[in-house]
Sequence to fold (341 residues):
Amino acid sequence: MGFKIIENRVRYYLVIWTVFFLIAIGFGYQSVTRYDPAQSSFIDDTKIYSEIVLSGTKGITLDHRSTRVLVPFLARSVYSVVEGNIGLWNPVQFSLLFVASFFCASIVLMMISICKLLFEDERIGIVAGLIFYANFSIPNLYLSGLVDSAEAFFLLCIIYALLHQKLTLLPIIAILGALSKETFLPVGSLIIGIWWLYESFIDRKINYKNLFHIIFFVLISSVVVIALKSYALDKLTLLVEFSEGMRTSLSFSFDRILVALRRFSYAYIWLLPLSLFRINLLPRPWLISAVLASIMIFLMGWWIGASGAAISRYMFNMLGPLLSISIAILILDTKLKTKEL
Fold:
C-alpha cells in the first residue's frame, strides 16, 4: 500500500513537471525560430553561452560570464543530439531553451514541495508556479538563452534544505550553484548565514553543527568559483581580483538612472505590490534573508556598474519564487498560518 502511494505521488509530480516544462518550451519558442538571442545587444550574455555550446571549453574566455558553465555544458549535450534533426529551428538556442525549461519546471516543483511543507496545500505552489511563469523575466530572460533559471533553482534548493533541516544537501547545492553563476556564492552564503543567525537568536544558543555546514558551503562554492576564474584567466585568481575585474565605468546621468529604474520595474511593477498583502505568512528567516540579500545585490550591482535590468534579474532569481507564493496565497484567498518547523 505504501509503495502504491509513493508511486502515485511520483506520477503526480512528474505530470506537473512535464506540463510546466512544455509551457516553458512554448514560452521560449520565439528564441528558436523568430530571432537569435545571441545577436541581441540587450542580452549579449547569450552569445557567450552559445559559443560554449558550440565549442565546449574553448568557449571559456577572459569574459567573466564565460565561467557560468553548468547550463551551457548541459545544453551542449542536448545540442549533440538535436543538431541536424530539428529542421529550421536554431539547434543552439533550442538546447539552451531545453535546459532552461528543465530548471524552470523544477523551480515550480520545488515551490509546490515548499508550500506543502509550510501550508499543507499544494494548490498554492501550483498557482505560484503560474504566477512565476507570467513574470516578464521568464519568457524574456530565463527562456531567451540566459543561465539565470539554474541559479534561481539552486537558490530555492537552499531554502528547501533550510526549511527541511537537511543541511547535508548544502555541499551539493554549493557546487552546482557556483557552476551555474558566480553570484550564487555571495547570495547563497548570505541567505544561509542570516537564517543561522535568526535561529540562533530565537533559540538563544549557537548551533555549531549548522555553523560548520555554513562554513563548508562557503568554502566549497568559493573553491569552485576560484577554480573556474583561474582556468579562464590562466592564473590563480582570487575572489577580490575577480570582482575588481567585473567593474565597468558607467556615467550615472539623470537619463541613465531613469532608464535603469524603468528596466528594473519590468519584473516588479505588479509582482511586488501584490505580494505585500500575504508576505507575512511566509517564514520570517526567509523574508529577512531575502530583504538583506536584495540590498546586497543592489549594492554589488551598483559597485560593478550593472544595468537596472541586470540588477532586477539578479534579484528576481532570489525573490521571484518567494513573491509568487505570497501572491498565490492572496489569489486563493487562503487564510493560513505557517506551520511550526
Notes: The radius of gyration is 20 Å. The CA atoms of residues 61 and 188 lie 25 Å apart. The mean pLDDT is 88. The first helix runs from residue 2 to 27.
